[in-house]
Amino acid sequence: MQIKNIIFDLGGVLIDWNPEYVFLDVFEGDRKKMKWFFDEICTFDWNENQDAGYPLAQATQDRIALFPQYETWIRMYYGRWEEMLGGPIAETVGLLKKLIDHPNYRVVALTNWSHETFPIALNRFDFLHWFEGIVVSGEEQTRKPFPEIYTTTLNRFGFNAQESLFIDDNLRNVEAAEALGIFGHHFKSPMQLQQFLEQNKLL
């Protein structure tokens, strides 16, 4: 690999975000009930729609219209969203710093994130300001794994796909990048990422 550009995902790679931080307490530790809520009411697909720019208030009202008996819980999803943000994933942030300080790389981020909540993360995590730039799906009105957001990222920074590495904890998103000729790495842990970077002589 002749890598000149590194593109980081944020949530699950550099930032610990998990709705369990709110709802495990709401459901008094009942993981089965919490899983049902995420599978049937405030689903992954529903949340991803907001990552593509759909308004949070409207999304909340849409869900309440479908499940009025669960209004209180539905309102918590975005009403208590900030509590779902854990801390930085420190070991990955350390790797990010090494890559940013490396003279051979340009480093940016590409994240599926609502444009309404992303400013909270920008204020909380100083390392987000280390990037040359961040492509936020909610601002682009599209999201991973759709090809448009990858090509937008490449074009915005003048990156060549064959010289770029994309790191994401969602295999679906990695495979979509690879389909466009971008090198991909499926993130599973900071140690695994470090081993990958060292084995490929990128660190």
Structure description:
This protein is of the alpha/beta class and 203 residues long. The chain has helices spanning 20-26, 31-40, 44-51, 56-66, 71-79, 90-101, 118-124, 137-140, 147-157, 171-178, 190-199; strands at residues 5-8, 15-17, 85-88, 106-111, 134-136, 164-168, 183-186. It has two domains: 5-16 and 87-199, 3-Layer(aba) Sandwich (Rossmann fold), CATH 3.40.50.1000; 18-85. The protein is built from eleven helices and seven strands. A five-stranded parallel beta sheet has the order 5-4-1-6-7, with helices on both faces. The chain has a two-stranded antiparallel sheet with strand order 2-3. Helix 4 (56-66) packs antiparallel against helix 5 (71-79). The two termini are 13 Å apart. The mean pLDDT is 97.
Write the H/E string, N to C: EEHHHHHEHEHEHHEHEH
Number of strands: 7
Report how far apart the termini are.
13 Å
Strand content: 5-15%
Count up the helices.
11
- What's the CATH architecture of the largest domain? 3-Layer(aba) Sandwich
Strand order of the largest sheet: 5-4-1-6-7
CATH topology of the largest domain: Rossmann fold
Structure classification: alpha/beta
Total individual domains: 2
